[in-house]
Amino acid sequence: MGKKLETTGNTETRYAAIDIGSNAVRLLIKRVDPNEDDRLTKMVLIRIPLRLGIDAFSLGEISKEKVKNLIRLMKAYRQLMKIYDVAAFRACATSAMRDARNGAEIIRKVRKATGIPIEIIDGQEEARMIYNNHIEYMKDRCGNFMYIDVGGGSTEINLLVNGQLLVSRSYNIGTIRMLNQAVAEEEWMRLQYDMTEIARSYPHIDIIGSGGNINKLYRLSPAKDETAQRIATDDLAALHASIERMTVEERIEQLGLKPDRADVIVPAGTIFLYIARCLQARYIYVPMIGLADGIIDAIYVEHKRAALSRQIPIE
């Protein structure tokens, strides 16, 4: 990865990822299961909707109140990693922090207050880290797949052909950006052009969807194929249309969505369907994984390659 990993002084094979997104901040903790061929098994997943992107995409910087809340949350996550005896962790910030004028200042404040170093990763690295999920999900899968993660501030795509990563790109198109009408028309045009060109070169592409919104859409669909863990594009379009006709309040009451999910789920569906139509994809596979999984996969791979010599305790 070329990045330093924060490690504890123990030998426990438990890893953590902090994903500081535009909509929510997640802590994921996994352990290596020796009884399942060293498969990574989820222990803890916490998601707090700080919505940093609302400030970043409309004001150009993140407000003092949201910075205070981020520091409070990082302190809590630090303690949880200590409780779970995490061996190594990595904290990454994506689109909102990339766009915020005060992003670097926030990182310094968080490091000083909590000891947690945060990396602002660019869209290409974010896409590649999401691709790392193939360690868990893409083994032995053949064919053409577009791995898509839709976040609050950006959408990351990875083209997999017979398990090999051929294309990795990022677009400033996300759910919070759409709600704030902050997506440039040129970005939609770039996405359309790229997807159309890829479809010409690699026909019969299906999608692997990543992120909380596609996970929720999959769960809500009465037509999903649970055996294959996928939903047909036409069925997603029908579900999306019905949700789009509802008010946010109706989505909360009738579908049981949380308020911070009820508004972003529609733009997320719009992005997935836009790409699916460009690719003429028939299905979207939904393995219920995301960027935090990719971060942990990367830590795991690095630990397998070589034992880390530098030990940094979580205090």
TrEMBL record:
Ppx/GppA phosphatase N-terminal domain sequence ranges: 46-298
GO molecular function: pyrophosphatase activity
Any Pfam family hit: Ppx-GppA
PANTHER family per the UniProt record, alphabetical: EXOPOLYPHOSPHATASE, RETROGRADE REGULATION PROTEIN 2
Superkingdom of the organism of origin: Bacteria
Name of the molecule in the record: Ppx/GppA family phosphatase
